[in-house]
Structures are given as structure tokens and as C-alpha cells.
Design a protein that fits this description.
CATH superfamily of one domain: CO dehydrogenase flavoprotein, C-terminal domain
Strand order of the largest sheet: 4-5-8-6-7
Shape: globular
Helix content: 25-40%
Number of helices: 12
CATH class of one domain: Alpha Beta
Strand content: 15-25%
Largest sheet: 5 strands, antiparallel
Bound molecules: iron/sulfur cluster
Distance between the termini: 51 Å
Length: 325
């Protein structure tokens, strides 16, 4: 690990003033410290933001507001989240391990870096870590990699389960920078890799995530998150699905669907949503809708199974959601 300056700003304004290029914000540290030890991230200055008043969960504005420094386990257990947005609780509970969920913050979870092994190994090239150096995953080990939103420069998946659930719910992130505050749709916050995979977010130098806001959605209580992975705990998604459905009897009136483990960013599936709306809730309907999910998928040598797995994950998530009604 390289030397760096360590500071503890006392206010959001102070943190933003001190932030900028070469500076990293430290919350739970479960990603940043790992990557600093590996020399993948080498900030000159680390700002510990844990004293900032950015915790808590509330519904004061009508929707759900989650402070960026709230811990994953606290948010997963919060009654407002459990009752009104079970898809968020499930996504959080199925992430990482109990110890990590106690440490890791919501903001850090959303900004976590990819788990691509080449990205984390500084002895190999990687366009995301070192622009223009190449992408060994294209012709190498790519079983866990993405099939949606990929480019010839990068095929890494986005690792956050929570982000998939939030994208399904049209969540927004609130940011504070030197130029003031702004709000960005989480869906647009994550950038496609294109030819610049090192640019991952619509986040300006020194900008801080302060909150996540989920718009009011009363029927989000009918939602769930399903995660398929190689082992039962402490593992990233091979495939996952966040689903929410509003019904009148057997008829589907509205649906929200997003998948993880498939895309270079959390992947909203509006084609699947449209294929569900107006139809009778049944396995046949779910299978027909799920078939549209794979449009545009580009499997790699070792992950040709992923489009079929995505369809099956979606169908199972929708069937499991029925059992919670
Ligand atoms: Fe790097 Fe992306 Fe290629 Fe992985 S997939 S080696 S993160 S450029």
C-alpha cells in the first residue's frame, strides 16, 4: 500500500471542499481498503467521512430516503424498508457476508468496483484500471462476465445487488459537489463501458453521494429479489432479478424488472415489463416475457449459459413473488 494523507472532515461542506482528483472518500472501507492494499486504487488523500450526518432511513418526502452512510445491515433490517420495499431488504441480505454488511455503507455499495479478476491483479493489463492497456477477459476467463452492455474494451459486470433493486424502483442518487447539489437517476448514473471503461459513473471529481431516494410506490411491497450464485453465501451474482408487480386479481397492471450479473451496469428490462402488463399472471406469461430479456445479449466463450440462466431467473423470481401475496 502506498503512502497517503488521512483526514477527517467534520461537515459535508468541508468534505466536498477537500475532495477532488486524487482524493478518495472512506466510509466502511470494504472496497477501498481492499483495492488500496492491492495497489489498484492509489489515492494521495483519503477523507474519512464517517462523522458526517448522512445516516438514517425515512419516508418524510413521501418516498424512501436512505443516507449514504447508513450501513447495509441497518437498512436491510429497517421496518420501513422491510415492509414497503422488500426487494431492497432481500438484495441487501443476499449481499456479501454479515460482517461486511455491518461495515459497508449504502453509498460505498453503489460505488463498488467490479470483481473482474484482471481488474484486481495489477500484473495484468486492464482497460478499466489502465486505459488503453487491453482487456484480457475478452479472450480469457470470462465465465462471470457480462452479456449485456459490453464493448470491445470491457465486459465486466457491475457487482452491486442493491443497485439492481434500486434501478427497478427508479431510484435517484443525490450528490453534493463544490458547485452545489444535484440529483441523478440511478439508471443514468452508471455509464456503459464503450471505449472508456475507466469512467464508471456520472460523478464529478470530489462529488459525494449524500442520499438515495426511492420515489413513492405503494405496490413495491409486492416485490422480491432472487440471486443465483455458485455458493449459498458470500458470493457475487451469476444472475439475479429484482421484480415488483401490481395486479388486479390475476391481471398484471404494472411491473418493474431489472437483472444483475448480466450487464456492465444494473440492467432494467422495460421490454419484459411491457410484455407482462395487461396479461394474466401465469408461468406461461412469465416465460414469454422473459424470452424478450435476452435481446441484444452477446455471450462470451465461457458464459454462453447466461442468457438462458437470465430467463430462468426471471421466471422463478416472478413465481416466488406470487407466493408472497
Ligand atoms: Fe479490465 Fe473490464 Fe477487461 Fe475486466 S473486463 S480486464 S475490468 S477491461
Amino acid at each position: 500500500m502506498r503512502e497517503y494523507v488521512f483526514e477527517r472532515p467534520g461537515t459535508v461542506g468541508d468534505a466536498v471542499r477537500r475532495g477532488g482528483s486524487g482524493t478518495a472518500f472512506l466510509a466502511g472501507g470494504t472496497t477501498l481498503v481492499d483495492l488500496m492494499k492491492l495497489d489498484v486504487m492509489t489515492p494521495d488523500r483519503v477523507l474519512d467521512i464517517n462523522r458526517l450526518p448522512l445516516r438514517g432511513v425515512d419516508t418524510k418526502g413521501g418516498g424512501l430516503r436512505i443516507g449514504a452512510l447508513a450501513r447495509m445491515s441497518d437498512v436491510a433490517a429497517d421496518p420501513l424498508v422491510r415492509r414497503g420495499f422488500p426487494v431492497l431488504s432481500r438484495a441487501l441480505e443476499l449481499s456479501a457476508s454479515g460482517q461486511l454488511r455491518n461495515m459497508a455503507s449504502i453509498g460505498g455499495n453503489l460505488l463498488q468496483r467490479t470483481r473482474c479478476g484482471y481488474f484486481r491483479d495489477v500484473s495484468t493489463p486492464c482497460n478499466k484500471r489502465q486505459p488503453g492497456s487491453g482487456c484480457p477477459a475478452l479472450g480469457g476467463e470470462n465465465r462471470m462476465h457480462a452479456v449485456l452492455g459490453t464493448s470491445d474494451s470491457c465486459v465486466a459486470t457491475h457487482a452491486s445487488d442493491l443497485a439492481v433493486a434500486l434501478v427497478a424502483l427508479d431510484a435517484k442518487v443525490r450528490l453534493r459537489g463544490r458547485d452545489g447539489a444535484r440529483t441523478v437517476d440511478l439508471r443514468d448514473f452508471y455509464l456503459l463501458p464503450g471505449t472508456t471503461p475507466h469512467l464508471e459513473h456520472d460523478l464529478r471529481p470530489g462529488e459525494l453521494v449524500t442520499d438515495v431516494v426511492v420515489p413513492r410506490l405503494d405496490w413495491a411491497r409486492h416485490s422480491t429479489y432472487l440471486k443465483v450464485r455458485d455458493r449459498r453465501s458470500f458470493e457475487f451474482a451469476l444472475s439475479s432479478a429484482a421484480v415488483a408487480v401490481r395486479r388486479d386479481g390475476d391481471t398484471i397492471l404494472e411491473a418493474r424488472v431489472a437483472v444483475g450479473g448480466m450487464g456492465t451496469r444494473p440492467w432494467r428490462l422495460t421490454a419484459v415489463e411491457n410484455a407482462l402488463v395487461g396479461r394474466r399472471a401465469s408461468e406461461e406469461t412469465y416465460a414469454e416475457a422473459a424470452a424478450t430479456a435476452v435481446d441484444g445479449a452477446r455471450p462470451l466463450r465461457h458464459n454462453a449459459f447466461k442468457p438462458e440462466l437470465m430467463k430462468r431467473t426471471l421466471i422463478r423470481a416472478l413465481l416466488e413473488l406470487e407466493q408472497t401475496r
